[in-house]
């Protein structure tokens, strides 16, 4: 049985089939050529994404986690056709994305947007916030008539908790958290159905992370967006996600509801990742099941045969070295979920009961929706735009 069939079977098994699927990825692959020698011939390939299949439901958040280099960003780019895949399909709202061209593709692009990791480099420093957030309206001029664009941008700024009067400011006049709000405002400008968030809070301070995550949840409730939330921080992903997919060397190794992944993981890699999450409650330290992995992540240019994880797995047997396990349903003690392991079995790694009086949501509890660094920035900039140095001008040159 192929991965696709097992995915389909698993989703229908669990009665989720009647939920609306907005995006279907099937066996997506992205291989980058490695060139070498004087003639720059292709000498190999980097298998950045190596056969990924999943469904995304309307209005849900699917978290994608995994170590650096496992292919998360590449997957994000392929899902919204910033790059063409080597193989595989993406179906968006019942339409095959990679069969579209011209205006049909442009129309589809409206509905699937991205927010990038680094709020410092993803915003053009020579454009005002108004120009940055309003850019999607220039690309899709029929969405908002020219006369109404300034107002539309101001409404977006307001929606993400920024002062609409700051529409003429430049990115360097904002804090990191505020810049990410600008990126989010641009991402939601066209009222997309899916927002791919590639490590949207990784570059931010923990307290600011919380504000941005809370903002994203608020926007999801108000706009009915589905998120693909890429991150390497398991606690942030847990907080925001309905379902979580774990990636290792270009493949999904486990995917399921948030509590299935965090409380009843069946893949050894997920178990190892969870065992490395810092435990905030000191009374739990030492009680946790510690798993130390040996070795480094192998290169995606030369992934191990069979199960990609076998070189670091403590359960490895001969079959793991030769046969690639399918992503299929394994029992987890409370039903089952998809996992890619010949010897999948549930192992609770972290105490997930609320023993300390702190719910899982407490991580971000009590954080205001609004970025309070606004006040700091406003103070520094002054309401009358009295700024020190050349900051009120656009950076020149280049
Ligand atoms: N344009 C490219 N050309 C060649 N190789 C690439 C390209 N983009 C990514 N890769 C390789 O593909 C693999 C996956 O990269 P990717 O950026 O998707 O990982 P990631 O999971 O997002 O990592 P991180 O957590 O560090 O952002 C890496 O080995 C990377 O070097
Ligand atoms: Mg990345």
UniProtKB/TrEMBL annotation:
Organism listed in the record: Marihabitans asiaticum
Annotated segments matching region Disordered: 358-398
Coiled coil segments of this chain: none
A GO molecular function held by the record: ATP binding
PANTHER family: D,D-DIPEPTIDE TRANSPORT ATP-BINDING PROTEIN DDPF-RELATED (PTHR43776:SF7), TRANSPORT ATP-BINDING PROTEIN (PTHR43776)
Record key words, sorted: ATP-binding, Nucleotide-binding, Transport
Protein name: Oligopeptide transport system ATP-binding protein
Top-level taxonomy: Bacteria, Bacillati, Actinomycetota, Actinomycetes, Micrococcales
Tagged with keyword ATP-binding: yes
Family assignment from sequence similarity: Belongs to the ABC transporter superfamily.
Any one Pfam family match given in the protein's UniProt record, by short name: ABC_tran
Biased composition (Low complexity): 374-386
Key word Transmembrane helix present: no
